[in-house]
Specification:
This protein has about 450 residues and is an all-alpha fold. The protein contains 21 helices and no strands. About 75% of the residues lie in helices and about 0% in strands.
């Protein structure tokens, strides 16, 4: 009977691989196991009475209100063509650099990925906006596709990331539970803002490594990066004036969070309203674009919260069968202590990233393993950023990485799948390098939050 939690987890993964919806798979399999347990007397039916309170607590969580607001901000920037204008203007600004278009894709893609927060949406958007232009300007297929795929996954780590909002909320609860289990009745809180601050240095390092790689390729293999740099005339005042509003919006949102002026949820509201006003001021927001923005935001929000409901049912049944104690026993039996346990968790999350999106992993896997790891002395902010970068790498890794499939769906027919796989390999190496650096020097993540 002790293995029932692991059997439940395996059954859920199997059903998901058959293509059934995530939220209904989580809830359906869990309720089925709970029903069998009630019949056989191995599951306490009173545990299910806690489910309405858990769901109400989830729906009334003010932190999670930031999710639809940040999504709306990114979708409005995309649907109103402001993101496309930003990409074109940034390309003109970087035109004096070798590989200037690829540089602008990384910079704009990082901003768009962070505000949209959904890997698939960002990769598809950047693929449609920039891939034809890059190919027309002579960029190699592998460099163009690799840059777009890698940039699309930056939404996992660049604030204000939806992934960090969800991870921050889950790890906050896990940290509180871990400290209470250790007898600490005045637990040190962990907030989404802490996650944002902790992601700043790793995020900037990763963007800098992407830019350095693109510039090195453009310098030593110019034929792969469109040949010679652009000679077009740049009207600097007009260019800077067009770049200022969208960049100012992003910096106001992040600045208000980092300065402690606003919570992430409040800043998300400012960002959503700011994006809407910016689109109206530029006369870029048609009625059709407004409807599409609202519909896309609603779909994403419903998906997130439906999965969260299913994950709540799963975690309740999993713990009801003693799953948390089983995981704790397994981790403590591993040689090497916290290091080996963290390594195993990272490997499992990396492999699950091939079949599950970050939302499912955040709501299903992280709540199960995080309390045990935190009780073993792991810093919650460091753990959250490591998971975010790990998932980012998983989404980029052939042959199953989500980002590869998304770009394949919008890429021209003359771009082969092998071109995409070849293009992402250097970026995967850069992400692994960042993971190793954060593991060796945790201060890359923890130093900045400790200064607040």
């Amino acid at each position: 009977m002790e293995l029932i939690p692991l059997i439940l987890f395996a059954v859920v993964c199997l059903v998901l691989m058959l293509g059934y919806p995530v939220a209904f798979t989580l809830a359906g399999c869990s309720l089925l196991f709970a029903g069998l347990g009630i019949v056989t007397g191995s599951f306490d039916p009173n545990l299910l009475k806690a489910l309405p309170d858990r769901l109400f607590g989830t729906m009334s969580n003010a932190t999670l209100v930031a999710v639809p607001l940040f999504v709306y901000m990114g979708v409005v920037l995309e649907k109103s063509k402001i993101a496309e204008d930003l990409l074109q203007n940034m390309a003109r600004l970087c035109s004096f650099l070798p590989g200037g278009l690829a540089v602008s894709v990384v910079l704009v893609g990082a901003l768009l990925a962070a505000s949209t927060g959904i890997v698939g949406a960002t990769v598809v958007t950047m693929g449609l906006m920039s891939l034809p232009t890059m190919l027309n300007r002579g960029y190699s297929k592998s460099l163009a596709t690799g840059t777009i795929c890698a940039t699309g996954t930056l939404g996992q780590i660049i604030p204000p990331s939806i992934a960090l909002v969800l991870l921050g909320d889950v790890l906050s609860s896990a940290n509180q539970r871990a400290q209470l289990n250790m007898g600490v009745f005045n637990p040190t809180p962990v907030s989404v803002g802490d996650m944002f601050v902790g992601a700043v240095i790793p995020g900037l390092l990763l963007v800098a490594m992407y830019l350095a790689y693109v510039l090195v390729i453009a310098r030593y293999r110019p034929q792969a990066a469109g040949g010679h740099q652009s000679k077009e005339t740049t009207h600097w005042p007009a260019l800077l004036l067009s770049l200022a509003p969208p960049l100012a919006l992003v910096f106001v949102v992040l600045g208000s969070i980092f300065a402690g002026v606003a919570t992430p949820t409040e800043a998300a509201g400012v960002g959503a309203m700011g994006a809407l006003l910016l689109a109206l001021a530029k006369r870029k927001l048609s009625w059709q674009a407004f409807k599409e923005s609202c519909l896309a935001t609603t779909k994403t929000t419903v998906m997130v919260f439906t999965i969260l409901v299913g994950a709540s049912v799963f975690s309740l049944v999993f713990r009801g069968y003693g799953g948390e104690e089983l995981i704790e026993a397994i981790f403590h039996s591993l040689p090497g202590g916290a290091f080996t346990a963290t390594l195993v968790v990272m490997l499992v999350i990396f492999l699950l990233g091939f079949i599950l999106d970050f939302i499912e992993i955040t709501f299903v896997v992280v709540p199960l393993v995080a309390p045990v790891l935190l009780m073993m002395g792991i810093d919650p902010i460091w753990l959250g950023i490591m998971i975010a970068v790990n998932l980012q790498t998983s989404f980029l890794t052939p042959p199953f990485g989500f980002a590869l499939f998304y770009l394949r769906g919008v890429a021209p027919k003359n771009v082969m799948t092998a071109d995409i796989y070849t293009g992402v390999v250097p970026f995967i190496a850069l992400q692994l390098l960042l993971l190793i650096a954060m593991a060796i020097w945790p201060g890359l993540v923890t130093w900045l939050p400790s200064q607040g």
